[in-house]
Amino acid sequence: MSNNRRDFLKLSGLAGMGLVGAGMSGFTQAELDNVLKQSRKKHDQRFNMSGYAAPKLDVVRVGFIGLGMRGPGHVERMSKIQGVEIKGICDLLPENVDKVKEKLKGTPHKPETYSGSAYAWKKMVDRDDLDLIFILTPWDWHVPMAVYAMEAGKHVAIEVPAAKTLEECWQLVETSERTKKHCMMMENCCYDFFEMMTLNMARDGFFGDVIHGEGAYLHDLLGLNFNKEGYQDMWRLKENGTRNGNLYATHGLGPICQIMDINRGDQMDYLTSLSSNDFMMKRHAQELAEEDDFFASYANMDFRGNMNTTVVKTKKGKSIMIQHDVTSPRPYSRIHLVSGTKGIARKWPKEGVATGHRWFTDEQMNELKEKYTPEITKKVGEMAKKIGGHGGMDFMMTWRLVDCLRNGLPLDQDVYDAALWSAISPLSEWSVANRATSIDVPDFTGGAWKTNAPVSITLEGGGTTKVRV
């Protein structure tokens, strides 16, 4: 085994815990006890990062870590935004770095490259000419990289989920508060067009008092997770074989939290979570192992339940349901349901709004879109659709992040959102392991949620960043 590979396994914890190919799923008792301990932790806030406006950056100098699945698209979209300099790109595999550098030819960006070592990223982060680090790696690396970058004086943007454990969530919060560096989890679904419209509708009182919200990640990834050419070192399949709960909560959860002003007027109180058995993954691993010895170790794993349902109660008495299923053969859905005292909206299987027993007509929906499409969508929405990234929401997220940094504005998502939305996974794992027993959700804001201002949905003070098309 190479030193780089050994370092990776050591950091990920898979080798040290004996979980690779061990036919083992879920927490040890010590880990369960620690989740309960961390869920009860009381936070003495050192500095409130909610609403914090860091000093303006005329030019945002960016470095990217991780150029496998998501990284190349992030680099390409960032390269089109003016007021940005891509200074460094990094990946464990040199060929990934070379491909991305080749794509940047003809642009103003000429980044330094870093690769070939599990810790090559540290050399890039240590540079003194970077302002923002994008972290686009397997989940085990998110927090070590983010903490290191913030300690080095850089803002960070992390792919979802930002953290895997409650301890890691607390590390992000405490480091961001101490360094006064932004730590944003890049929950792109908060920038999808219908989700942003319903946020604007909620702010205008269209739904009345919001009572209930639903979100999900229902996406058939069975083939991709078992594809040897998919995720590097089969890391995502290993996540599914060593944990049992809602492993990917944030896509459906983030937009609902913004609509309910979670961390900014309301807070999660407790949750309960239940998983079905696994009816598909182990069977598929065994079928593959009959033809290919590569899958023999996976055939011995006890995979997480195919469907997880997690339910949250908020301090103000609202409820949230989040589901996770990445194996069943069903159409993609994040649900996105908002239900209030005056009306309801739901995105899948078809965008719909109702204030009574009948869904609005197409003509009424067009009128709603005209009235409630927010400023950011009106300004860059059509351009975002052309540039792409999940229909344009990825580009809107990146453009908005850069525009906030360049204009000294608070970010739409802060470290408390990153920690709270990511915390659903370990909390759900604890509940599943304890027969759906409820568990308290920690308050990462230290009580500041009671007075924190809601997320801004205007471009006031910003909107000045231009795009190369």
TrEMBL record:
NCBIfam families in the record, alphabetically?
Answer: TAT_signal_seq
Q: Which SUPFAM superfamilies match?
A: NAD(P)-binding Rossmann-fold domains
Domain Gfo/Idh/MocA-like oxidoreductase N-terminal: residue ranges: 60-185
Q: Which Gene3D superfamilies match?
A: Dihydrodipicolinate Reductase, domain 2 (3.30.360.10), NAD(P)-binding Rossmann-like Domain (3.40.50.720)
Specify whether Transmembrane is a keyword of the entry: no
Every copy of the Glycosyl hydrolase 109 C-terminal domain together lies at: 196-350
UniProt similarity note:
Belongs to the Gfo/Idh/MocA family. Glycosyl hydrolase 109 subfamily.
Q: Which UniProt keywords are present, listed alphabetically?
A: Glycosidase, Hydrolase, NAD
Q: Which cofactor does it need?
A: NAD(+)
Q: PANTHER family of this UniProt entry?
A: BCDNA.GH03377, GLYCOSYL HYDROLASE FAMILY 109 PROTEIN
InterPro entries annotated for this entry? Answer: Gfo/Idh/MocA-like_OxRdtase_N (IPR000683), Gfo/Idh/MocA_oxidrdct_glycsds (IPR050463), Glyco_hydro_109_C (IPR049303), NAD(P)-bd_dom_sf (IPR036291), TAT_signal (IPR006311), TAT_signal_bac_arc (IPR019546)
Q: Name one Pfam family in it.
A: GFO_IDH_MocA
The protein's name is Gfo/Idh/MocA family oxidoreductase
Give the taxonomic lineage as stored in the record. Answer: Bacteria, Pseudomonadati, Bacteroidota, Cytophagia, Cytophagales
